[in-house]
């Protein structure tokens, strides 16, 4: 019985697609290393139209992957934006051709530190070059080349995905008809770097990390990675959401136990978040991807002036933030909007009222979804996309 | 050469005082265990007046101790409220008699999990009973008995110290003439429990923790404790303070290194916070004291209604919060004030404008210090304390 039969999916390729890129022409990373060939795992939904004008690139977040609307091959949970993908949905698969690839440095099929370094025959580990958001985007651009697409109708993503959206719009303005950075920022803040550093130190403090060589040693730094995830997970929620969801409720008991078991539901929940994460994520990937986010500073990359990143742009932007997001607060989105306004870009800015914190972009937020639909409809009209592309496929 | 000679101090007993309590009458803890005898390490400043009406009990925070205004015996850094203690200062040692004791479960001289369990001859480790804020306060009350003081002129403290202040006011209303809970709350929030749980899991994930028996094994879980401290430290600051202090500034370099060294100053700072903390703090004490804070819920302890905790009180309260404190936000202080108002208590409420986050109560905040002085002056007048007690001492 295949996965397709057990769990409904909108994709004909539920286990994902894979392509090798950069064999003849390695990818020059920001750190100076030439990397190639690399494997890129990706997924598509819907059909590319005849003039290749209906492609939407979805960029995933730190611990996301390309299983946007398919069951995750390890956890079997629905894809992270399942609710948004399908016929008649926000990302209407009758109308748009959706692409999402696992980021460079990831651990779900795209080349990253857990893969074999062909020069040594061993897993890369910490010999893998340190990557940037820009490097992730360069690889995605190669994939888009491979698919024969000149211009993306839209690039969209939340959190680190939103950083990629901004980097796309800066690097390839002609290739991005519209862009939706969600719950993102043009630079990682000191507080966010600090939280990432805690996570990295937790991983590196785990003796099973083995200086990054755990795969060679047949070990996994599960304890450190779980602590990293727990710390990060708090930042994805909001205090009101935690209060509403758990408050000080006890876990299957009437009174505290005067011990260090998970007395409180919030403790049990966090421990669960930590312990399930380690089954699906690679510790070194976590180090590399958090580092890429820390390094992201679009103003610094453009002469210290964020507006320079977008000078002359013709891309249509929709910037989205959430009121209770304290990891990527509205002020960060507003800075992006100000920069876009400074260069007279076409930009909408929507702050969604939500108590769900940073994670709101992954959750059921009707106003958010309506915002996406409305913006995409408008952009599609400007792009001259027909109201419905054939849903029948080739 | 004694410490007194090398570092100026206002105290005649710079290495602290110690007393054994509860030998004849053990202390009944909230968990049901009878504990005793216990050692209590404490410090005093100034002189107790003839009618013993000028004593102020200072309650320290999670990782604080009784070295309020003396150099710390391990770090040699000035005491945590040095600036506030001395002749003519906020806590005027010419006028008041200050007492501060290391909390039960601590690691600076008061009985805690690193001390010897006299029944086994081994360090307590996790056999130490789980304690509460109420238990800490019971021990302090025994110390106050020992000093022959019926009523404290004031009980004051920040953060966990503020929790103790509230517990004092509830448990011994007749013994507390005035009370100043600062940057505190009447219950630990879900988000705060979550951050504590991350810290505990980081400690417990360190193999050198040895299921709590590291002292027997001659080990110390320094890596786990450092990670716990790093995570907690972020919560003590504010995003604006981190941004102002560090922003994205690099550490002694012009460009990022494309590696996992501390490229950013904020990383270096956090690592320093973690690594210096382990020299002065015991990992099991960290588990026990964070647990005590998590358990604190003054409303739950009083029939579910916070106001019940203070019904009939004649204590004069001054509740203080800081605008940028997101660990114990003003809303928590306001809940205390509402409860006090509901029972017509004598209460002042001051929210201090500060960008220093939770740590503001330990830092140079003139408006905060003026608030303390003003409230203490007023309370002293009501208590009939002379404007100046003899500064000459006995």
UniProtKB/TrEMBL annotation, chains A, B:
InterPro entries, alphabetized: AB_hydrolase_1 (IPR000073), AB_hydrolase_fold (IPR029058), HAT_MetX-like (IPR008220)
Catalytic activity: L-homoserine + acetyl-CoA = O-acetyl-L-homoserine + CoA
Active-site residue list: 159, 325, 358
Keywords on record: Acyltransferase, Amino-acid biosynthesis, Cytoplasm, Methionine biosynthesis, Transferase
Entry's Gene Ontology cellular component terms: cytoplasm
Compartment annotation: Cytoplasm
UniProt-annotated binding residues for substrate: 229, 359
EC number: 2.3.1.31
Any Gene Ontology biological process: homoserine metabolic process
Signal peptide: none
Gene3D superfamilies, per the entry: 1.10.1740.110, alpha/beta hydrolase (3.40.50.1820)
Keyword Cytoplasm: yes
Top-level taxon of the source organism: Bacteria
Molecular function, one GO term: homoserine O-acetyltransferase activity
Record flagged with keyword Acyltransferase: yes
Pathway: Amino-acid biosynthesis; L-methionine biosynthesis via de novo pathway; O-acetyl-L-homoserine from L-homoserine: step 1/1
AB hydrolase-1 domain boundaries: 54-363
Function: Transfers an acetyl group from acetyl-CoA to L-homoserine, forming acetyl-L-homoserine.
HAMAP family per UniProt: MetX_acyltransf
Subunit structure: Homodimer.
Family in the record: Belongs to the AB hydrolase superfamily. MetX family.
Name of the protein in its database record: Homoserine O-acetyltransferase
Organism annotation: Paramagnetospirillum magnetotacticum MS-1
Record lineage: Bacteria, Pseudomonadati, Pseudomonadota, Alphaproteobacteria, Rhodospirillales
Gene transcribed to yield this protein: metXA
């Amino acid at each position: 019985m295949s996965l397709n039969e057990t769990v409904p999916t909108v994709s004909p390729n539920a286990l994902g697609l894979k392509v090798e890129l950069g064999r003849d022409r390695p990818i020059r990373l920001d750190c100076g290393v030439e990397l190639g060939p690399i494997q890129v795992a990706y997924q598509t939904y819907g059909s590319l139209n005849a003039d290749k004008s209906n492609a939407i690139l979805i960029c995933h977040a730190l611990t996301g992957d390309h299983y946007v609307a398919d069951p995750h091959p390890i956890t079997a949970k629905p894809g992270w934006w399942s609710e948004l993908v399908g016929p008649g949905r926000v990302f209407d698969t009758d109308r748009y051709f959706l692409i999402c690839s696992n980021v460079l440095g990831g651990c779900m099929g795209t080349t990253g530190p857990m893969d074999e370094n062909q020069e040594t025959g061993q897993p890369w580990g910490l010999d893998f070059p340190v990557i940037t958001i820009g490097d992730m985007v360069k690889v995605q651009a190669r994939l888009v080349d491979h698919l024969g697409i000149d211009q993306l109708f839209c690039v969209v993503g939340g959190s680190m995905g939103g950083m990629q959206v901004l980097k796309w719009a800066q690097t390839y303005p002609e290739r991005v008809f519209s862009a939706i950075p969600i719950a993102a920022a043009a630079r990682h803040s000191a507080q966010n770097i600090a939280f990432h550093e805690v996570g990295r130190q937790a991983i590196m403090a785990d003796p099973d990390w083995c200086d990054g060589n755990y795969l060679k040693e047949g070990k996994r730094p599960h304890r450190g990675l779980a602590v990293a995830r727990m710390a990060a997970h708090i930042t994805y929620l909001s205090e009101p959401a935690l209060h509403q969801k758990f408050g000080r409720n006890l876990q299957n008991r009437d009174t505290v136990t005067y011990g260090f078991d998970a007395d409180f539901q919030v403790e049990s929940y966090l421990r669960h978040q930590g312990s399930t994460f380690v089954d699906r994520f690679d510790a070194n990937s976590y180090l590399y991807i958090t580092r890429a986010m820390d390094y992201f500073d679009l103003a610094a990359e453009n002469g210290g002036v964020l507006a320079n990143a977008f000078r002359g742009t013709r891309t249509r932007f929709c910037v989205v933030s959430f009121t209770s997001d304290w990891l990527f607060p509205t002020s960060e989105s507003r800075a992006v909007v100000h920069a876009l306004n400074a260069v007279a870009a076409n930009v909408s800015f929507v702050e969604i009222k939500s108590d769900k914190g940073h994670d709101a972009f992954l959750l059921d937020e009707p106003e958010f979804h309506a915002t996406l639909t409305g913006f995409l409809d408008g952009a599609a009209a400007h792009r001259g996309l027909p109201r419905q592309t054939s849903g029948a496929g080739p």
